[in-house]
Design goal:
Shape: elongated
Number of strands: 2
Distance between the termini: 52 Å
Strand order of the largest sheet: 1-2
Strand content: 5-15%
Number of helices: 4
Radius of gyration: 19 Å
Largest sheet: 2 strands, parallel
Structural class: mainly alpha
Order of helices and strands: EHEHHH
């Protein structure tokens, strides 16, 4: 299932318009209705956006992936600290 969300805060960094979901201007009810109508009328688009969003969540926000990225950051900091100390 795809995501429809407003272009506010960090949401546009997470939801890529036309790739992993659809965005609309905050407070614009007509644009929101249009985005929902677009998905309602285009099941292939609905499916592709939903699949892409699911993939993005698994790749970027699943616990294991977040842990691996955090460990990578720690490894870089430790390596840099050792380089400075030498």
């Amino acid at each position: 299932m795809p995501v429809v969300c407003s272009c506010i805060g960090g949401l546009p960094e997470i939801v890529e318009d036309g790739k992993t979901g659809l965005l609309y201007e905050p407070g614009n009810a007509y644009e929101l209705a249009d985005r929902i109508r677009t998905l309602w009328q285009n099941s292939a688009l609905c499916q592709s956006l939903g699949d892409a969003g699911r993939w993005k969540v698994r790749e970027n926000y699943a616990a294991e992936g977040l842990l691996n990225r955090l460990l990578g950051i720690y490894e870089k900091v430790i390596a840099e600290s050792r380089r400075i100390d030498d």
